Amino acid sequence: MANVNIDRDTLRELADQGNETALDRLADLADAAGDLEELSELLDEGSMHAGFLLTRRAAASGDARELQRICDAGYDEAGRELDRLLKAPADS
């Protein structure tokens, strides 16, 4: 199979038509570029993959507020990560 690079505009069109794979691909591109604003927008559009990527970043940095925001936006795993973070023993 050939390596295919589909442009962002095409991916956006497909995502706007309900194609979740295109939405996931946009999330991957935003994550690779470090574009947290676009990832957040994709989460707001319903991309659970964007929620996963944002949660991974927020959990790694220990950002409780961001985990709560992601959970509130509909990605439940962020709530579980937040609970884990809050229940972790405090550093001495």
Describe the structure.
By secondary structure, the protein is mainly alpha-helical. It is 73% helix and 0% strand. The chain is built from six helices and no strands. Helix 2 packs parallel to helix 4, helix 3 (36-44) crosses helix 4 and helix 4 runs antiparallel to helix 5 (64-72). It starts with 7 loop residues before the first helix and ends in a 5-residue tail after the last helix.
List the helices and strands and how they pair.
Layout: H1 8-16, H2 20-33, H3 36-44, H4 48-61, H5 64-72, H6 76-87
Helix pairs in contact: 1-2, 2-3, 2-4, 3-4, 4-5, 4-6, 5-6
What are the defining features of this structure?
92 residues; mainly alpha; 6 helices; 73% helix
Q: What value does the average pLDDT take?
A: 93
Which descriptor suits the 3D outline? elongated
Number of strand elements: 0
**Roughly how much helix do the residues carry, as a percent range?**
over 70%
Distance between the termini: 54 Å
Question: Which series of helices and strands comes N to C?
Answer: HHHHHH
From the alpha carbons, calculate the radius of gyration and give it in angstroms. Answer: 15 Å
Structural class: mainly alpha
- Major pleated sheet: none
User: Roughly what fraction of the amino acids lie in strands?
Assistant: under 5%
Q: Count of helical segments?
A: 6
- Low-pLDDT parts are none
